Structures are given as C-alpha cells and as structure tokens.
Amino acid sequence: MPGRSPRRRFTGLVALATLLVLTACTGPAAAPAAPDGAGFGTYRPEKQFTERVTESFYLPMRDGTRLAVKLDRPAVDGRAAEGSFPVLWQHSLSIDRKPEDGAGPKTGGIQTIPTLTDDGYVVAQVARRGNGQSFGVRRGYNDRLEAGDAYEVTEWLGTQPWSDGNVGMYGCSNTGDAAMHSLTVRPPRLKAVLAGCFSWDKYDAWRVGGISAQWGFGPSRTVEQDLANNPVDGDADKTLLREAAVEHQKAAPLADMWRGMPFRDSFSPLVASKFWSEGSVGSYADQIRAADVPVYVIGGWRDELRGQGIATLLNVPGSRLLVGPWKHCENAGFGLVEEAHRFFDTHLKGIDTGIDDEPPIRYATPASDLPDATGLQWKSADTWPPAGTTATPRALGGDGVLGSTAPGARPFTVDTAAGCPQDPGSGSTIQPCHIPGAGTSFTGAAAERDTEITGTPVLDLTVSVDRTDAHVFAYLEDVAPDGSTTVITEGRQQVSLRATAPAPYALPDGVPWHRAFAADAAPVAPGEPARLQFAMLPTSYLVPAGHRIQVTVTGHDPRETGELPDADGSRIEVAGGTSTITLPERS
Length: 587
Hints:
The protein has helices spanning 6-22, 144-157, 174-184, 202-206, 223-226, 239-248, 254-259, 275-278, 285-291, 306-315, 336-348; strands at 51-60, 66-76, 79-80, 85-92, 122-127, 163-172, 190-196, 295-300, 320-324, 361-364, 378-381, 389-395, 408-413, 440-446, 451-455, 458-465, 471-479, 485-494, 530-535, 539-543, 548-554, 571-576, 580-586. By secondary structure, it is of the alpha+beta class. Strands 1, 2, 3, 4, 5, 6, 7, 8, 9, 10 and 11 form an eleven-stranded mixed β-sheet that branches. Strands 12, 13, 15, 16, 19, 20, 22 and 23 form an eight-stranded antiparallel β-sheet that branches. Strands 14-21-17-18 form a four-stranded antiparallel β-sheet, with no helix packed on it. The longest helix has 17 residues, at 6-22. The two termini are 22 Å apart.
C-alpha cells in the first residue's frame, strides 16, 4: 500500500513547526508523541478536560436552508475552555444521540466520539437537510446537495474562533456515507475521515446481484416521528421543529425511489437523476483521490456492506481498513473510539501515534465456536486479500458432495414462505440463515485441520429454471459434528442480469462484476441452462477441524424485499459436476 502522501507529511511538518515557534522561548521542543504503550486498541492519553458545554442552533446554507447543529466543546468550571481546538463532526439524521448508540455491542464505538471533548476536541452533530431538526427537503439519499452542505459546514467549523482549522469527519451507516461524500467536494480544511459500514457503489450495496434483499430503504418519517426529536436551543415549544417536520413531508419516499430503479442505469423521475450513480461515492473516485485525505474504513464480517469497505480500500490510496466479526456498526470486544482517537490525533494534532508505521489492514477471524466477539485475535496485512491466500476451486457434485465432479442435476422447488428456524434479527443487523430442506446443498468431508477462509468466495453455477427469470441465493456454511449449521457468508444473483463486464473500479482479483444496465437484461427460455458467475460477500472465518464446509443454493431468502411475481413454486436445477465455488483459503 502507498505510504504517507506529500500533503500528509507537509501537514505534520506544519504542526511541528508551529510547536517549535510557540515553545522557542523555553528551549528545543520535541514532536508530540503518544503515551507509552498506546497502540492499536490501547490508545488512552491522559484526559485534558473533565467537563463539556453543549449548545445547539441553526446554521444557514448557501440557499438559505437552515441546518441544525449541536456543538460539544471542552469546558472548565462550567464555561467553554479558552483556546482553539481541532473539530470532529458527523453529518447525521438528527442532532440527538440515542442511548443505545453507545451501549451493548456498540459500547466504545463510533457514536461515543463526542466524549473526545475530554481530549481537546470540539465535536459537532449536524442534521442533514430534510432530516431531524434541520429544514429543507431530503432529495434522495446522500445526494449532491448534501455533499455541498458538507463543504460549507466543514469550512464554517474550520474558521470559528474555537477551531484551530483542522477538521475531521466520522460516521457509520448513512453517516459513514455522508462522511465519504464530503471527500468528493474536497473542502480544504478536511484533514481526515473515519467511516464505517457505508456504500462505495450504491447499486451493488442495495441491490446485490440485482436483487433487493436486505434490511431497509432509508428514512421516511412522519411529522409526529420528527417531533420526537429534541428541538434546538430557544425552540422549547417546538415551533421551528414543527415547521421543519412539515417541510420534510415534501420528500419523495425512498422506498419508491429504490424500487423504481431496477437497473444500474435507471433514471428516477422522483429525483430527476440516475441516482445509483449520483449517490455512489465511487462515482467520484478521482475527486477523492485528488483530495488526498487520510481515510479509515471500519467494517464487520456480519454486515451487508463489508465488501463496500474493501472496495474503498482498493480504490483510495493510503486508506486503512479495520474489520471485526461484527454486525452493522457494532464493535463488541474492541474500543473503537480509542482507535478513532489515535487516528484523529495523528492527522489533526500532528501527534506521532505510530499508526502510520503499522500495516494498513487489521482484521479478526472468528470461528463457529466463538460465542461472541470478545477475546478477539487481530491479524494485520499489507494487501487484500492477505498474503498467503490461495484461490481454491471446489466442484459442486451431482451427488451433493462438495469437491466431487460427479455429474447430475440437483433440482429444488422454491418456497417463498420458508422462514428462518431462529430469529434472524431485524433492521440493520438482520442475518442470513440456513433453512433446513430449502434449496439444495453440497457438503464436503470433515476438515482434517483448521481451515481459514479469508477473502471473497466466487461461485460459477450452471442453472436452469422453469421460468424466464429467477433469484438465486447461495450460502457458504459451516456444519458442526452435531449437525448445527452456521452461515459463513452469502451471495445472490438475478438470472436475467447474469452478464459480466469489466468493473469501473478495482476489485480483488477474480471477483466478477455485473453492469446490470437495462440493456443487459436477458431473460432465459424455460429449461435453458444459464451460467451465473457471482461473488459472495467477503469474509474471514475459521472452520475448525472436524467441521464440514457446505454450499447451499436456494431460490428465496426471507430478507428479500423484491420477489419475482411468479417465484413461488418455480423449479431450479443446479448442474452438478460443472458448477464450482472458489474459496480463498489461507495456509
């Protein structure tokens, strides 16, 4: 991976030169240094403040739209501390913080960053236009209007008397997207971005394989729901909050927008845009690279968006990646706020925390016998996939054996009423599940040794359907000696959108990409074989010795939100012996 850029070295030199000037009268000064023992996951400098003061207000944008801002500042004896400080901010859906955002598996996570006021940061929450306490009408989701607002807010925060001019952004999920979109407009005072669980390519994030089958559509709230927000200071009777809430209702329903764009090049009349492109961070990759701002990507092996973070790593030189065995925006077993603190101290305060001397990738590899995400064993890598990873093809046998080349069709009937035997969760943390009897499975022999799978599994299936189209879902699974089954990772592909094409951005070697334009749609004749090449979501997982690796293929997933109208009762056959899965195995 590339080292520190000239701009970043220059920023550090400026910070050092400033320190030398300020301390010239007391003799030579050393560069700021991290406390002893403060490394990955253990960065805990002595606190500088024990109090903070909070205020909220409206900040007008270039078109007069007022955005709600909540500002937390370090304080002494109940008053804002004197001096100027670096600023961190989040472009959110509300300036409120929910108690659950920093509790349970999110304890010490991204949403606890406002506690860094104790460490000499000003921290701001800014509600995006058309959301929360802010005025305006939401247009799409992470659109160009929001990016323009991010430019204005960043520059405003960087020029206030309490700001030292160094600004960082952070966020996870939709606020991670917002942080990344800020890079696309290149505000001069933006010096670092930490973003988790966001989309590099919105189509491939929201319609994996052309199929809408994940957990949500984005915010569409009633006036009453918006009025549950806390108002800004001075609006105790919620007069302004109500005005903003009523204005929000003019926004197009996001669910209608997404459903109205089945192809990557679909035009949405609701926002007058080919919004998959407009809303994708990757559409502005050249601008992001030109910004030359340090980026730290956070992800989880149980999050639907994990592949998007890896795509960002591969397309933004100098970026860093941290992936744990977590669900969406979780960080159980790891003090993420401490790592965020180390990252921002490096790039906003010029402190030598050692982070730039470490490998750019950290990841944890869970196993099925790990009951939770505590006691993590972290690994590091310089490239993705990590060195020592071998792409290992395994045939899906007609006899139902993984690794067998026996010919034969493996037919099954699609049952759209089949549900998960256990609660898969809901919302942003909903998980895939193994449904006994659903689809067809290919099971390998018991592993003779522990087998690590780290990278992106790729399927090459030959299927035939008794309809003109189908949704095909595939699950990589770990079968324990007692028969219990754990889904390791999953993938999906709509048969009519099977055509592959060169990707417009870097992906791991061997990972196929589908353009999925309207012109690419190619229904099949019933019974005609069709070749499907598609990737599963990336993973890192340890299959213990004695366990079996299994691939299950189905025609329905309970999380599916856009079923084909005639899917139920359809018949799908997988050609055994010629279909394969390629596993990224590490020795």
